[in-house]
Amino acid sequence: MALRLAALLAVASVAACSDDGRGDGPARTGSTTSAAGAPERDEASAPAPQEGTPVRIRFGEAQVDGTVLDTPTGRDLLEQLPLELTMNDHGGVEKTGALRQALSTEGAPSGADPDVGAIGYYAPYGDLVLYYGDQSRHDGIVVVGRMAKGFERLADLPGSMTVTVEAVDPP
């Protein structure tokens, strides 16, 4: 009897979670959960890569590739490349360095919550910012691009450092 009850409950739970084609069930989102409990994304629902210009960022003995987005702020940054900046560590999450000239913030939101690995512009100070840690939303931040794998090494270089940013294929 207990075996029949367990089988009945298993069938009922599968039926309750399935989509019967009427469209009144929960929407499928394209994400699943792995065996480890971490979310996975179907390729069809993964975000598309953003258009932009490839750049190379050099610091210490390391280099990281990135992309500067095709936005007014991003285009202004590209106009200043190649750059050699003295960057300082702030809060163990970012490196900042003053640009020669302010960038346009036309069409940019009033602030942003940059992802780890973002390339940003902090408009109030005119600084280029490389985010290697989690920075919360702040007014004045404009995300201008993204660094590829390897940006984490910025955390290993405390204090002041020289950073070079150049377009891989000059515009």
Describe this protein's structure:
- 15% of the residues lie in helices and 37% in strands.
- It has an eight-stranded antiparallel β-barrel. A two-stranded antiparallel ribbon has the order 1-2. It has a two-stranded antiparallel ribbon with strand order 7-10.
- The relative contact order is 0.20.
- A hairpin with a 3-residue loop joins strand 5 and strand 6 (94-98).
- The chain is mainly beta.
- It contains two helices and twelve strands, in the order αββββαββββββββ.
- The radius of gyration is 23 Å and the shape is globular.
- The longest helix is centred in the N-terminal third of the chain and has 16 residues, at 2-17.
- Mean pLDDT is 78; it is low at 1-49.
- It has a domain at 52-167: Cyclophilin.
- The termini are far apart.
Could you give a short description of this structure?
The protein is built from two helices and twelve strands, in the order αββββαββββββββ.
Structural class: mainly beta
What is the string of helix and strand elements?
A: HEEEEHEEEEEEEE
Largest sheet: 8 strands, antiparallel, barrel
What is the architecture of the domain at 52-167 at the second tier of CATH?
Beta Barrel
What integer is the average pLDDT? 78
Proportion in helices: 10-25%
For the record, give the distance between the C-alpha atoms at the N and C termini, rounded to a whole number: 74 Å
Given as residue ranges, the uncertain stretches (5+ residues, pLDDT < 50) are 1-49
CATH third-level topology of the domain at 52-167: Cyclophilin
Order of strands, widest sheet: 3-4-11-8-9-6-5-12
Query: Helical region count?
Result: 2
Taken from the alpha-carbon principal axes, the silhouette is: globular
* Name of the level-1 CATH class of the domain at 52-167: Mainly Beta
